[in-house]
Structure to design on (266 residues):
């Protein structure tokens, strides 16, 4: 069924599926014991993977926020919902969200670079970076490895602030605010409905005007709203811990990144 809500949900699901599909080759190729892991092409792929997944994940969060706004308008201003949140405006909003989120993630791309370093491959395929650790110097292959790193600490901090604040924390705050407003409006709507049914004359008048089909439509509307509210809360539960971790990296420094952020990310 075509509707603004379904358009947003479809775009959100598409972004999540794209992230999962892109993660499959990354998970398969991420083997430090193989030679191609240290090639320039794979280093370039790692940068692409980092920016690509964050961009589409941010798109999912932004679409969840738009979904909350659209639903709040439907509950708060039902008489204007068809005009303010029509299909055409929803489609343009979805397209703009995809483009805008991709641009926001640009600092993540500019903060990273590819470094090169001399390495040694033993006869059994083991790769060693420090030549002094090699006991048997026979059958050693000398080659250059490539790996990703931040340009400097300033770019690293900028990248983590963009990740922690823009991509994670701000969406979490907006989801909390919008979810709260949505719950309040649902409660107010329920109270108004109780007040109408409390008045006998009004109740009879409503029974004449509203048939069973319309009553079921109202119930379905509120069920859908509650379901979407649950989706927003799940997004919040998943995003808030990541926001805190992203903010702690530039605050606590490299040691926290190596001992906590990196292992948890893996």
């Amino acid at each position: 069924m075509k509707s603004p809500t379904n358009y947003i949900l479809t775009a959100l699901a598409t972004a999540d599926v794209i992230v999962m599909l892109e993660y499959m080759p990354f998970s398969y190729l991420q083997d430090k014991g193989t030679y191609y892991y240290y090639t320039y092409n794979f280093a370039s792929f790692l940068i692409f993977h980092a920016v690509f997944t964050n961009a589409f994940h941010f798109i999912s969060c932004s679409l969840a926020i738009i979904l909350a706004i659209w639903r709040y308008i439907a509950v708060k201003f039902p008489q204007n919902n068809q005009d303010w949140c029509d299909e055409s405006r929803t489609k343009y909003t979805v397209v703009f969200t995809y483009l805008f989120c991709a641009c926001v993630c640009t600092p993540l791309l500019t903060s990273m670079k590819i470094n090169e370093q001399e390495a040694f491959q033993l006869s059994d395929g083991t790769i060693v970076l420090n030549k002094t650790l090699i006991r048997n110097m026979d059958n050693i292959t000398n080659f250059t490895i490539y790996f990703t790193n931040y340009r400097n600490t300033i770019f690293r901090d900028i990248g983590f602030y963009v990740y922690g604040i823009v991509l994670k924390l701000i969406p979490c705050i907006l989801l909390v605010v919008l979810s709260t407003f949505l719950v309040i409006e649902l409660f107010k709507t329920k109270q108004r409905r109780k007040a109408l049914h409390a008045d006998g004359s009004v109740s009879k008048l409503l029974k004449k005007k509203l048939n069973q089909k319309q009553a079921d439509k109202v119930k379905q509307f509120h069920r859908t709203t509650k379901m979407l509210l649950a989706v927003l809360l799940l997004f919040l539960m998943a995003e808030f811990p990541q926001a805190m971790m992203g903010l702690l990296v530039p605050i606590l420094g490299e040691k926290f990144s190596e001992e906590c952020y990196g292992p948890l990310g893996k």
Remarks:
- The chain has a mean pLDDT of 80.
- The chain has one domain: 4-265.
- Residues 4-265 form a domain with the Rhopdopsin 7-helix transmembrane proteins fold (CATH 1.20.1070.10).
- The longest strand covers residues 112-121.
